[in-house]
Structure to design on (582 residues):
């Protein structure tokens, strides 16, 4: 079952801190979103291995859109 | 026993006190729930003082007609309690149940004492609707009484089990609702009804469980793990509030703030864009262990809760940059508004801790009515007549600054930390708005340096230690380590002034 880390709000992906194949634990910060002049850390709710970075750096993301997919 | 009548009374009382059938009681306890009278023992300081209608329903084999209504003491103060007995006909409401419930509401309101609703009920009895649904003296009076009692005496609900359909309005109409995880539910239509009418396949927990209500719908204010924890929370909550709206909140025993691992000035990042958990700042300001967070799981980009400053209850509203940058959303506006209403109703002074770059923008937000919600929050702030202090901790930009009790909303004081910056917009947006054309016309090599310099100039303009302090837009710029003492001294003075509401019937609020 794939598990996704979703953007908490609309903004621009500033830094992605993981790459494909990395192991992620629940609570880890996987990316930093830039929105409303704030650097907003995005934490994973799940543990798993990164299968895909859905929103690479520079991508404009909407609220609830996938940032990173885990397996 | 020589007096047969006394013996008869004792027999009836014994039956009434036992509650439902042995089978129903066993089932209740096996589910990890406390019997209603054990909940009462835990809630009151000692035995309660008196009970109404103990013998109601006894002739119909419905002990106390599934509800206990009584008055006793919590922290030495009188409190009325209305508590369902789930072991008697699933705690459902019959006609006598309703008569007992509404009578205790009337008694409490007239006496000026808080009402605690301990809810655990299957709701209204369909077979008793003839006398109880349609008329002037009917179940709906429960809600009518709650509404006309709102803001007169505190009303708090602990939800231990179901509260289906109409019964869901009891928690909804209380000032604060505490829900027991994995036990409490509130829903208008059951999963069975959802399946039948709209084809939705969903569990009771997902549809109307405590966790959902405390984190998504906002109906629940505090999520707890057990019946006993719920009762503890009721007792703690009441300690911040007066018994009746005309009284001041009870002064507790003052304690120093909790010692922090780092001084406050090191907890708050100077870089305005870096997030931190504002609850660390709150903890460093208030009396140790006095923070009672309300709606911790709902719209966490804004923190609300009660605390004490040298024993004095204060309601705190703080932007939390750790979540969604602390930006204001539709739900955070709702959360702040209701908390302000609650504090204002019961004379609890308000403290705003500002660190906000504004209301969230974009089409989703506009369609969700972010302007409407922002207007509602503004109304709540401007109308609050209790002592009110706002502190610009870091950012105070745009509508966010005004909504977080900026100077123009007439707080008793606007303070700032040295990290405070307040302006219509932040430096990036300001330079873009003012110089976009000029920058575009400039040779490319000069642009970055120009923008950097202009941003720096602008940042100096909105630094509270500059223009804002010079022109007396702020009462004081305070070091983080001295803020607690400053707040205590100021709240003492501002609490002395008259608290006069605006003379009118009702404002016309946005919602």
């Amino acid at each position: 079952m794939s598990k996704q880390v979703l953007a908490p709000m609309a903004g621009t992906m500033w830094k992605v801190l993981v790459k494909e194949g990395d192991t992620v634990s629940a609570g880890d910060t996987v990316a930093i979103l830039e929105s409303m002049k704030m650097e907003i850390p995005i934490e994973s709710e799940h543990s798993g291995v990164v299968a895909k970075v859905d929103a690479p750096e520079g991508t404009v993301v909407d609220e609830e859109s996938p940032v990173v997919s885990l397996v | 026993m020589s007096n047969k009548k006394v013996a008869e009374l004792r027999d009836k009382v014994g039956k009434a006190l036992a509650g439902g059938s042995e089978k129903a009681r066993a089932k209740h306890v096996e589910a990890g729930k406390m019997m209603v009278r054990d909940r009462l023992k835990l809630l009151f300081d000692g035995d309660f003082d008196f009970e109404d209608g103990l013998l109601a329903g006894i002739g119909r084999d419905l002990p106390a007609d599934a509800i206990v209504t009584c008055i006793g003491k919590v922290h030495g103060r009188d409190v009325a309690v209305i508590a369902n007995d789930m072991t008697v006909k699933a705690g459902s409401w019959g006609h006598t149940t309703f008569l007992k419930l509404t009578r205790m509401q009337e008694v409490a309101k007239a006496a000026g004492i808080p009402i605690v609703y301990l809810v655990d009920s299957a709701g209204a009895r369909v077979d008793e609707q003839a006398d109880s649904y349609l008329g002037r003296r009917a179940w709906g009076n429960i809600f009518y009484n709650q509404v006309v009692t709102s803001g007169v005496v505190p009303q708090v609900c602990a939800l231990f089990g179901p509260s289906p359909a109409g019964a869901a309005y009891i928690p909804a109409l209380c000032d604060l609702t505490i829900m027991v995880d994995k036990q409490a539910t509130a829903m208008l239509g059951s999963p069975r009804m959802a399946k039948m009418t709209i084809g939705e396949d969903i569990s009771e927990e997902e549809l109307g469980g405590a966790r959902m209500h405390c984190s998504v719908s906002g109906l629940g204010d505090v999520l707890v793990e057990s019946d006993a924890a719920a009762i503890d929370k009721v007792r703690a909550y009441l300690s911040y509030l007066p018994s009746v709206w005309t009284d001041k909140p009870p002064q507790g025993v003052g304690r120093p703030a909790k010692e922090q691992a780092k001084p406050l000035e090191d907890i708050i990042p100077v870089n305005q864009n870096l997030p931190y958990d504002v609850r660390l700042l709150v903890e460093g300001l208030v009396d140790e262990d006095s923070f009672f967070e309300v709606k911790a799981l709902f719209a966490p980009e804004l923190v609300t809760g009660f605390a004490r400053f040298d024993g004095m209850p204060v309601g705190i509203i703080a932007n939390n940059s750790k979540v969604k940058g602390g930006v204001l959303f539709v739900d955070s506006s709702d959360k702040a508004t209701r908390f302000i209403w609650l504090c204002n109703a019961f004379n609890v002074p308000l403290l705003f801790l500002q660190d906000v770059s504004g209301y969230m923008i974009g089409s989703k937000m506009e369609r969700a009515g972010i302007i409407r919600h922002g207007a509602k929050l503004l109304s709540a702030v401007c109308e609050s007549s209790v002592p009110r202090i706002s502190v610009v901790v870091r950012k105070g930009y745009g509508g966010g600054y005004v909504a977080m009790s900026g100077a123009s909303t007439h707080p008793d004081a606007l303070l700032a930390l040295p990290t405070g910056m307040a302006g219509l917009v932040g430096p990036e947006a300001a330079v873009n708005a003012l110089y976009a054309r000029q920058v575009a016309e400039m040779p490319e090599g000069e642009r970055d340096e120009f923008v950097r310099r202009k941003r720096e100039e602008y940042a100096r303009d909105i630094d509270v230690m500059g223009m804002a302090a010079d022109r007396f837009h702020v009462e004081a710029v305070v070091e983080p380590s001295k803020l607690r003492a400053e707040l205590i001294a100021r709240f003492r003075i501002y609490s002395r002034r008259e608290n006069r509401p605006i003379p009118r019937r009702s404002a016309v609020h946005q919602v």
